[in-house]
What we know:
By secondary structure, this protein is mainly α.
Amino acid sequence: MNDFFSDITHEFTLPFTNPVLIFAVLLAIVLLAPILLKRFNVPSIIGLIVAGVIIGPFGLNLIDNNHPGVSMFSTIGLLYIMFIVGLELDLNEFVANKNKSLVFGFFTFILPLSIGFPVCHYLLGYDINASFLTASMFATHTLVTYPIVSRMGVAKNQAVAITVGGTILTDTAVLIILALILSSSDGGLNLIFLLKLLVSLIVFSAIVFLLIPRITKWFFQKAEGEKYLHYIFVL
């Protein structure tokens, strides 16, 4: 009996480590937070963010954000939002405003980076890598509030298409900076690394823009009547 209570107590030790318990807590938040905040006319995404802060390591410490399961769910959630954006995005509107997206992405990337780096390096005394890393956090932005935009019925607005394009640009640029920072911190930032990075970007672009569209067209033709296979393939 003592062993039984000891095991139960261990399972509820903070932060939770049992994946089933973690999953149950996350599902409860996803279910209850929007319902509770709807009474106060607060967007559900705000409730989910606040709930995440409350149960996180700097709140009640129910869940450790470094837990592999939590990291997986956070990554999948962000990718799913990007996926939904891609489904609802009007490509004709996106292509028509590509120049505006480039300008928007350029300025929303350069301005925070050019302000954040000198502030972190000269005022706060961070080293170069830490300054660039912190400034790049200011320069990037995600589409986490897109569900609100979609629910309001303005997802096909020109401003939304421009913002999505700018987000793609800034996120790509920040990922490149992150790779450079990681290589620099390990002492491996040299000409060979830069060449490898350049070749990787070229190969990746060729796969995304040339190979995948052809594979997709072939797959949809072969599985024309299997709608569920289309859904799985797109995911």
